[in-house]
Amino acid sequence: MSQITPVSLEALKALPASKLSNPAAVGLAGFGLTTMMLQLHNLGLAGLGPVIWLGLIFGGLAQMIAGLQEHKMGNNFGYAAFTSYGCFWLSLAAILIGNKYDVFPSSTTDVGWFLVLWTVFSLILWVGSLRVSKAMAGCFTTLVIGFILLDLAHFGYPALTYAAGWDLMICAGLAWYMMAHVILGDLFGRDVLPVGKPIL
């Protein structure tokens, strides 16, 4: 019978530390792609089907998982943002499905108040984004502007949905830029796409 050779403490210390992936790559990807898809719908370029499915799977489930992984990394901002906006997309998809099949239907005003509350939540995170990077601050600034435009669109100014669509496309693009920053920085071992120093 073979014996197990004991491993010295020095040998254990010499082992390379296990590398942890950055969950922000998936969180930003899910947020950006699903936001882009919704704006393509708001701009009249795509139907609602892909928005619902992405809202359930990529923007919703995958982003929530990324948020929970941020919790393990000790990142409260990423934890709150990805988990919460994952819930946003799941909730929005559920509202759209509910309206389609007349299950707890929501009026335009109901959706408006839903968006107003998310605007307030986003304002809180917007302040936090000023401590992260210029790219993050830009992403949250356009997000808050987009939410305000959609709030107004649901309370009597529907034409603003079009303006919100273009604004939130910029927001989604910034999310993808930060996603690329994370992925390419890891692969190349240097800051390929700078995101800028925090504003505050």
Q: Quick recap of the structure?
A:
This protein is 74% helix and 0% strand.
Mean pLDDT: 94
Number of strands: 0
The total tally of domains equals: 1
Report strand %: under 5%
Radius of gyration: 20 Å
Number of helices: 7
Report what the structure shows.
The chain is an all-alpha fold and 200 residues long. The protein has one domain. The chain has helices spanning 9-14, 24-42, 49-73, 76-100, 108-129, 134-154, 160-188. Helix 3 runs antiparallel to helix 4 (76-100) and helix 6 (134-154) packs antiparallel against helix 7 (160-188). The protein starts with 8 loop residues before the first helix and ends in a 12-residue tail after the last helix.
Provide the fold topology.
Layout: H1 9-14, H2 24-42, H3 49-73, H4 76-100, H5 108-129, H6 134-154, H7 160-188
Helix pairs in contact: 2-3, 2-4, 2-7, 3-4, 4-5, 5-6, 6-7
Keywords for this structure?
200 residues, 7 helices, globular, mainly alpha
